Amino acid sequence: MYPPALFVTLISLAGAALGFELIHDYSGDHFFQGWDYYGKWDNLTLGNVTYLTQEAAVEQKLTYINTAGNAIIKVDNFTTVANGERRNSIRLTSQEFYDFGTVWVVDATHLPYGCSVWPAFWSTAPNWPDGGEIDIIEGINNQASNQWAIHTTQGCYHTQAPADQAGFNIDTDCSTASGCTVGTDAPNTYMSGFAAAGGGVYATQFDTTGIFMWFWTRDQVPEDLTSNATTLDVSTWGDPIASFPSDQECNVTQFFTPQQLIFDITLCGVWAGVPSIYNAQCPNAGPNNDCYLDDVVGDGSNYDEAYFEVSYVRTYATGTALAAAQSASATSTTSASATATHSDPSTTAKTQTSDASLPSVSLHGLLIFSMCVGGLIAGSVLPLL
Ligand SMILES: *[C@@H]1O[C@H](CO)[C@@H](O)[C@H](O)[C@H]1NC(C)=O
Ligand SMILES: *[C@@H]1O[C@H](CO)[C@@H](O)[C@H](O)[C@H]1NC(C)=O
Ligand SMILES: *[C@@H]1O[C@H](CO)[C@@H](O)[C@H](O)[C@H]1NC(C)=O
Ligand SMILES: *[C@@H]1O[C@H](CO)[C@@H](O)[C@H](O)[C@H]1NC(C)=O
Ligand SMILES: *[C@@H]1O[C@H](CO)[C@@H](O)[C@H](O)[C@H]1NC(C)=O
């Protein structure tokens, strides 16, 4: 709760330059508060999983806090699945919507991987593809490195890698099935390489000036994050690995609306399970050369590495998004999630400016039913749909 005087001060400064203040801390015993469990089969990417309800997930221990105090989000690796059945997994959606002027940080020590496994930490607007999608952590099968992407309705492109982008462009039309994808060769971004390095931190700035994503392996996490600061200065973070500035090629405020954050782990489905992709990445995984039959069916021993271990997700805001979050936390008892941080605007002024007040316009272009999938499959998925 804010004292009314401070609240008024913040509102009056909403248009001025402010640092990013912590607005929500998903961590520790409270990590799973503020997320909805999907509670039905994967009807989005058509994987061979049932996403459990919260009650079932807790009972079957597919989500829990481990002894290190980290959140575990995992695939069932202890049930024998018969041919024709699905395996249990998890999809979590944040109840909170994050507007322009916010930064989302996830610190993890392990990401799910292995043949048939397709995890993602991503965001979307409710009426996808209207309002856009941002893929922050995503990989399939034995893919060595992470891939970042944005997805939009027709009219948004990323044909040239911006000068400040550390990763390389893969696909450049954001309305295709693959979206606008950015890759890296760094093996510490995903799979066993990520865990071996002690994990790392992924951060996303969602702003009217563009969408910018960073990755740091454990020993390179910037000081404001390792020191647990409640105020961030993203201008000290160096070049993003994926940079989507709002420009002539893609007016971000036109294609994106407030986003919800999602964790999910599916199996097979319209990217990991596409036969040509699956067989290229997982040759000899089983006798059938088939993702579902060779991995999902049978005992759960393929899935011992199919889990997220997350120490926190923290979200930060500036400008009008910060004022809105503080107003919500000051007026609503249901947003116990919105952590009111101690804030003194006079000492937290930073260089970022963000005008989150621009209206967003949805396009209703005719779109194929594209998925939050990687660049390999633009051609191969469509016949399956
Ligand atoms: C998936 O199911 C949900 C809930 O029934 C529904 O709202 C949504 O439109 C479905 N999505 C797709 C892609 O079919
Ligand atoms: C498994 O996925 C494949 C490919 O999407 C689909 O054809 C099959 O019906 C699925 N089976 C189950 C039991 O989910
Ligand atoms: C880090 O900051 C969060 C939010 O302010 C707090 O809940 C947590 O206890 C802090 N952790 C440490 C190790 O200081
Ligand atoms: C971007 O789109 C917004 C509406 O979403 C519009 O107000 C603004 O003028 C556009 N900017 C440019 C440079 O076209
Ligand atoms: C499932 O995987 C975890 C590691 O993620 C492992 O500790 C556990 O023993 C596995 N369960 C079974 C039944 O093999």
Automatic annotation (TrEMBL):
Residues 1-19 form the signal peptide. Transmembrane segments: none annotated. Pfam families: GH16_XgeA (PF26113). Keywords: Hydrolase, Signal. Residues 335-354 are annotated as: Disordered. Residues 1-280 form the GH16 domain. One of its GO terms (molecular function) is hydrolase activity, hydrolyzing O-glycosyl compounds. GO terms for biological process: glucan catabolic process. Residues 335-349 have a biased composition (Low complexity). SUPFAM superfamilies: Concanavalin A-like lectins/glucanases. This is Glycoside hydrolase family 16 protein. It comes from Daedalea quercina L-15889.
